[in-house]
């Protein structure tokens, strides 16, 4: 047991299958529960075993206080009193004891979870509910106890000392109790992601008590594709992202990490990537928030062996291209004509493109810079050469052709002003998992490059002018030669959130630069 307390929760959980000990709750009670006086009066291992077993089995209501002190030896007397109150609330919630006047199920459940939020009482509450569902004579009341245990295991983990005993209890109970299997799944998720920790809103708890814990999640993908899946109280962003990538035929964990789930509020007032361990029900508490997904990293070679994969990537690349974010050149007429022809083939239209179609195929910043008659002529030649291409083949060819453009593989932002640069117009900022670059679209020259690992601090700036865009200040470089640059752009907060997300997790968890 002393070894178990030094293990992280995940290791304590995983080590159970390799350990020869039984990890029964009776064993835990023998080591950590208060010793009842009846145990001292018993002689012989059989008689003592019965007393120990009774400590971890259902206790009937006897008088006002079924227990007089905490089950586990607690040094703090106040904590022991709270444990007694917790046992009362548990019995009331399960229906073994009448509820106090004015107290509803919701109140009791919140009281129990508040007690469990105190780390010193967490093991005690695990032991109490396990005790009360073990050998309970009334199935309906017992099911309510299991329901609470499934909730507890999703919010808070037990200590590393108790973890293997709880795990073994759930494994042994699983074959005959569905809620035991649910609790085990929740506990595995808690070990992996840390548990929800914060208490849920009232509406979510009401849905839980009514058995309506499942909600529809809609993830908006580039290209107008929506992915629908079911979420519950303890669904995390990483699980949805992994499931979504699986639907695109992505199995490589490294490639999955190159995608992100974004939370968007309203019309873009808030845009931020979600960490894989974030519980969706904790962040999706308002009606005007939505989930979106896009690729942030492009290190893994692209593979075009799944239609959803092709559609999604085409949608994301096409959007960036038409917004002028990939930095195509007005002088590259043959390239523009070929990309226009491929877009037309994707639409599977048999008739030649109209003038309006042709204009829509050209990046917006270039629409008034190119000779449309020349583009139309070159596009006709390209369509004749590409005859026989299916829409899917055209999508693949479009992605491969745009991959040669300067800002392919970057998340691109339009920056209105930069402190260190004097440019004729807005600059384009490209961001990937390694660095941030600034480019002049008019000359297509690289103006600045900053490695993300060199960033020391990010700070949001208020608009310089009334109703103007906010700014973002970046401090970077070595301690003996620090440098500062500020950027003015409408998506300053989104850029800050995305940079923090792209920084290595071990750095960002202790990074002082988020202001």
TrEMBL record:
One of its GO terms (molecular function) is actin binding. GO terms for cellular component: cytoplasm; cytoskeleton. Pfam families: FERM_M (PF00373), MyTH4 (PF00784). Residues 62-209 form the MyTH4 domain. Keywords: Actin-binding, Cytoplasm, Repeat. It is found in: Cytoplasm. CDD domains: FERM_B-lobe. Belongs to the TRAFAC class myosin-kinesin ATPase superfamily. Myosin family. This is Myosin XVB. The lineage of its organism: Eukaryota, Metazoa, Chordata, Craniata, Vertebrata.
């Amino acid at each position: 047991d002393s070894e178990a307390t030094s293990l992280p929760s995940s290791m304590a959980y995983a080590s159970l299958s390799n350990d020869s000990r039984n990890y029964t709750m009776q064993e835990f009670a023998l080591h950590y529960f208060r010793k009842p006086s009846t145990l001292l009066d018993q002689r012989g291992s059989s008689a003592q075993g019965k007393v120990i077993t009774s400590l971890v089995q259902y206790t009937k209501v006897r008088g006002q206080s079924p227990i007089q002190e905490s089950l586990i030896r607690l040094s703090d007397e106040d904590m022991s009193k709270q444990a007694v109150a917790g046992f009362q609330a548990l019995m009331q919630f399960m229906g073994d004891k009448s509820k106090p006047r004015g107290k509803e199920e919701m109140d009791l459940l919140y009281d129990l979870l508040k007690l469990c939020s105190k780390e010193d009482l967490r093991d005690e509450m695990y032991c109490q509910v396990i005790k009360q569902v073990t050998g309970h004579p009334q199935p309906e009341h017992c099911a309510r106890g299991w329901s609470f245990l499934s909730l507890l295991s999703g919010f808070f983990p037990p200590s590393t000392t108790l973890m293997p005993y709880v795990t073994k209890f759930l494994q042994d109970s699983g074959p005959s109790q569905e809620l035991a299997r649910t609790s085990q799944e929740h506990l595995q998720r808690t070990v992996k992601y840390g548990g929800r920790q914060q208490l849920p809103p009232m509406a979510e708890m009401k849905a839980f008590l009514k058995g309506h814990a499942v909600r529809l999640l809609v993830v908006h993908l580039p290209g107008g594709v929506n992915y629908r899946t079911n979420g519950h109280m303890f669904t995390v962003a990483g699980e949805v992202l992994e499931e979504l990538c699986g639907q695109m035929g992505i199995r490589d964990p490294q490639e999955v990490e190159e995608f992100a789930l974004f939370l968007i509020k309203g019309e873009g007032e808030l845009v931020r990537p979600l960490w894989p361990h974030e519980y969706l029900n904790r962040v999706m508490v308002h009606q005007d928030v939505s989930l979106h997904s896009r690729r942030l990293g492009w290190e893994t070679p692209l593979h075009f062996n799944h239609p959803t994969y092709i559609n999604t990537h085409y949608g994301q690349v096409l959007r960036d291209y038409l917004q002028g974010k990939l930095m195509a050149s007005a002088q590259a007429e043959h390239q523009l004509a070929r990309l226009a022809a491929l877009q037309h083939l994707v639409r599977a239209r048999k008739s030649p493109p109209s003038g309006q179609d042709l204009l829509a195929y050209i990046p917006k910043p270039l629409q008034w810079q190119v000779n449309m008659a020349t583009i139309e002529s070159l596009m006709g030649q390209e369509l004749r050469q590409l005859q026989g291409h299916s829409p899917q083949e055209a999508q693949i060819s479009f992605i491969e052709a745009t991959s040669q453009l300067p800002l392919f593989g970057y998340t691109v932002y339009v920056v209105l002003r930069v402190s260190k640069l004097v440019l004729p117009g807005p600059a384009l900022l490209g961001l990937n998992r390694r660095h941030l670059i600034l480019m002049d679209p008019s000359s297509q020259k690289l103006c600045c490059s900053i490695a993300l690992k060199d960033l020391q601090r990010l700070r949001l700036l208020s608009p310089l002018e009334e109703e103007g865009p906010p700014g973002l200040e970046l401090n970077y470089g070595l301690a003996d030669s620090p440098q500062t640059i500020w950027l003015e752009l409408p998506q300053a907060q989104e850029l800050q959130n995305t940079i923090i997300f792209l920084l290595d997790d071990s750095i960002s968890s202790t990074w002082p630069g988020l202001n």
